[in-house]
Amino acid sequence: MNKAPVIVIGLGEMGSVFARAILKSGHPVHPASRDTNLEELANTVKDPEMVLVAVGEKDLQACLKQLPSAWHDRVVMLQNELLPRDWASYNFADPTVISVWFEKKKGQDSKVLIPSPCFGAKASLLVDALATLDIPAREVASNTELEEELLIKNVYILTTNIAGLATKGNVKDLWDNHHALALEVANEVMDIQASLVGHELNRNKLIAGFKEGIDGDHEHMCMGRSAPARLARAIELADAAGLDVKKLRTISKEQSA
């Protein structure tokens, strides 16, 4: 029996990994770029199994706004810095979200830190597809658990990127040799995240998840190319919420000096 097609919007490094996994699981893949007319594609590819939105964070909102209504019950998202607020204004029925804990760089195989949690209507399909590439993923039980998993990933990626602007090293060096800085930045990041979700956080649990990510790959470098933009975006969010985030502002001033 032929399996239903899958739309993959965005075929960068991450989108390409998911496209290959989906192909290996037996679904035909129809790629789309940011310039593709999605309404025309929806008229051409009838009743896709899922629509994987794999564009970068900065292009996500523009892409979500363009999604045809026929796809609103099969949307899958995988971006960093995601929170439910990012899709709450759209009429998506049970969207699937995966918190990606593997990296893919040009010319290199995927490198797994820890299993990637996901939740939503297409979660089991994602878990099975990624397994064809030996990339572990796991389903979580509820939207509440998904939010917590997204918060853990946000704390990990924002703290390591922002603190890494000061330390320049890997995540083990950050945790072992700059522990006070790591916790100070993490707590300011959690202040911002709490303002975004509208409730206080279980900070001990988020720090434990942060440490699990560190232990998944001690050699993972803190500071990626996106680090300055992540810091600037964090400060903008802090400003909007009226938060001091003194350490983040100090790091920002040091970078511009």
Defining key terms:
Rossmann fold, 2 domains, 9 strands, globular, 11% strand, alpha/beta, 10 helices, 7-stranded mixed beta sheet, N-(1-d-carboxylethyl)-l-norvaline Dehydrogenase, domain 2, 257 residues
Query: What is the arithmetic mean of pLDDT?
Result: 96
The DSSP helix count reads 10
Q: Which class best fits the helix and strand makeup?
A: alpha/beta
The number of strands is 9
| Share in helix | 40-55%
In which order are the strands of the major sheet placed? Answer: 2-1-3-4-5-8-9
Work out the count of structural domains: 2
Would you give an account of this structure?
49% of the residues lie in helices and 11% in strands. It contains 10 helices and 9 strands. The strands form 2 sheets. A 7-stranded mixed beta sheet has the order 2-1-3-4-5-8-9, with helices on both faces. Helix 5 crosses helix 8 and helix 5 packs across helix 9. The radius of gyration is 18 Å and the shape is globular.
Task: Give the secondary structure arrangement, pairings included.
Blueprint (H helix, E strand, L loop, with lengths): L5 E4 L3 H12 L4 E4 L5 H7 L5 E4 L6 H7 L8 E3 L18 E3 L3 E2 L7 E2 L3 E4 L3 H9 L5 E3 L3 H25 L3 H7 L1 H19 L5 H14 L10 H15 L4 H11 L1
Parallel strand pairs: 1-2, 1-3, 3-4, 4-5, 8-9
Antiparallel strand pairs: 5-8, 6-7
Helix pairs in contact: 1-4, 5-7, 5-8, 5-9, 5-10, 6-7, 7-9
